[in-house]
Amino acid sequence: MNSSKTKDQSGYQLPISHLLLALAIVAVWGTNFVVIKISLESFPPFVFAALRYIFAFLPAALFFQRPKISWKNLYVYGVAVGVGQFGILYFAIDGNISPGLASLVIQTQVFFTIGFAMLFAKESLKLYQALAVGVAMTGLGIIAVHTDSTTTFLGLALVVFAGFSWGVANTTSRRAGTINMLAYVVWASVYAIPPLVLMALIFEGGWTVVSDSLIKAPIGAWLGVLWQSWGNTLFGYGAWAWLLSKHPAAVVAPAPLLVPIFGMGASAYFLSEPLPPWKIEAAGLVITGLMVNLFWPSIRNRLAK
Question: Is pTM, for the whole model, over 0.70?
Answer without folding.
Answer: yes
